[in-house]
Amino acid sequence: MSDESTPVLDLSALLDTSPPSDPTRRVYTNRNLDMSEIKAIGFDMDYTLVQYHQRPMDELAIRKTLDKLIESHGYPEELRGVALDHDFIIRGLVVDKQTGHICKLDQDRVVGRCYHGYQAVSDEERRALYGTKPISLSSSRFIRVDTLFSLPESTLMAGIIEHYKRQRLPLPKSPGELCIDIRQSIDEAHCDNTLKAEIIADLDRYVIKDPDLAPTLHKLKSAGKKLFLLTNSEHYYTDAVMRFLLDGALPFFESWRDYFDVVIVSGRKPSFFQDPNPFVRLDEAGQALDEPVESFAPRAVYRGGNLQELERLMRLTGDSILYVGDHVYSDILLSKRSAWWRTALVIQELEDGIRNTLAQAAPLSRLQRLDEAARRLDDSINYHLTLTRSLERVQKLMFALTSPETHVIDTTRDKTHREIERKRALLTQTLAEMEALEMEVERTFNTYWGQTFRERHELSLFGDQVESYADIYTSKVSNFLFYSPDQHFRAARSFMPHERENLAPAED
Ligand SMILES: [Mg+2]
């Protein structure tokens, strides 16, 4: 029998090699994804194929928003001088229009912490306002900070509130009106193209030129994957930015359009996934052609369109398509829910997060051990409390106890009491060290909010959404260059607490 059984592999050498070696360039897997099953890969453009230098983009968006707030919405000129903390806002926060508070939610949609301006709202006030129940994010009261594109709005909101608070003056309008005016102002700057015109005029300043992007797309295309671009941006902007990134990047691909089998601009996501908008073919100048779209022509550009038509014309459906985007809702959640597409989320700030996690490895591992110690102390205290109560019951029930027996029980009870006191003191000390260390570690991620993906002991709302809806996630599209186009991305085996706590130590 032993000769026929499968030989046991020595895993130590295998586990030592995991491509790529730089953790900031890895693709991380929530759910198994076999790329050999993927026939087409779709890409969003802004903050996905195209990554921006965040600070200049924020400053530009804020300057344009302030122009509109002052010129069109009657806000005072002094707003231009408001001091802003550009590191204040992180992705995944929620703005409460009613109060002007900015909140971080945990995975259960419970508000974990919040700020008014740059001042933390007290725990009492937070609990009085939001309680400990989940808040309804479908309510118009709350605005989500879902993408890097939406960070400047909240940066400005917090800065303006802080400005008036410090001067002990009321806001020019209510927090709700301020919120709406900021959103309208930035929308106006987008619609009249003043914002995009400045980006196009100085692409080097705003767009990160990633030398690995063209080879990545080429590698996927050469492996037989159909590639498509599905962006909400208009033709002129898409053309300008993609030319800058891809034209001439590889000798055999003259134009950026050579990389894609289908190019869709003004895609109107999330409506693209839900409504029957028609495809319209555009000419070289971006003007609509008056002809029905019955097939996709090579190197052509289309406007609008919808999910069903795209799948019909590409002769592909559901889980043979991978969509790569940066917007948890309109790119990832809807493509998964409406189309059953497989999903990859691009999280630009993941690189900094990973670097910091590595830098904080020692305190994070100490935190884990403290957490385990606290749970064991809790268990031990509870055991000793139960023992004390049992001894008391024995004494009450047994009237005929002899003096030596009573002595033994009394001594044991006293010893147990002392043990409980000792362990309670240890627990207090452990919890205090945990809290101090946790605050220290959190500050290294973000002074106000801590880790983007976590809220204290739990996942944050954002962390939960990444885990729930993104099959894989990574910091940029070009990280796929380090993997085979037929890579089988395998998720780590997940454990329930009763499995994790009872696992034998790992062996090779
Ligand atoms: Mg995008």
Describe the fold and architecture.
By secondary structure, the chain is an alpha/beta fold. It folds into 3 domains: 33-51 and 205-348, HAD superfamily/HAD-like (Rossmann fold); 53-203, no CATH class; 354-451. It is 44% helix and 13% strand. The chain has 17 helices and 20 strands. It has helices at 12-15, 54-72, 123-130, 151-166, 175-191, 194-201, 203-206, 213-222, 235-246, 271-274, 307-314, 328-339, 350-359, 361-397, 403-445, 461-469, 497-500; strands at residues 28-29, 33-34, 40-43, 51-52, 94-96, 102-105, 111-116, 119-120, 142-144, 207-208, 226-230, 262-265, 279-282, 301-304, 321-325, 342-346, 454-455, 458-459, 472-474, 488-489. It has a 9-stranded mixed beta sheet with strand order 1-19-16-15-3-11-12-14-13, with helices on both faces. The chain has a 5-stranded antiparallel beta sheet with strand order 8-7-6-5-9. The protein has a two-stranded antiparallel sheet with strand order 2-20. Helix 2 crosses helix 4 (151-166). Magnesium ion is lined by residues 44, 46-48, 325-327.
Question: In summary, what is this structure?
Answer:
The protein is of the alpha/beta class. It is built from 17 helices and 20 strands. It folds into 3 domains: 163 residues, HAD superfamily/HAD-like (Rossmann fold, 3-Layer(aba) Sandwich), CATH 3.40.50.1000; 151 residues, no CATH class; 98 residues.
Q: Which ions, cofactors or small ligands are bound in this entry?
A: magnesium ion
CATH class of the largest domain: Alpha Beta
How many independent structural domains?
3
Give the helix level as a range of percent: 40-55%
Largest sheet: 9 strands, mixed
N-to-C span: 23 Å
Number of helices: 17
* Strand fraction: 5-15%
What is the CA-based Rg, rounded?
A: 29 Å
Please mark out the parts with pLDDT under 50 across 5 or more consecutive residues, or reply none: none
Query: Major sheet: order of its strands?
Result: 1-19-16-15-3-11-12-14-13
The 3D shape can be described as globular
CATH superfamily of the largest domain: HAD superfamily/HAD-like
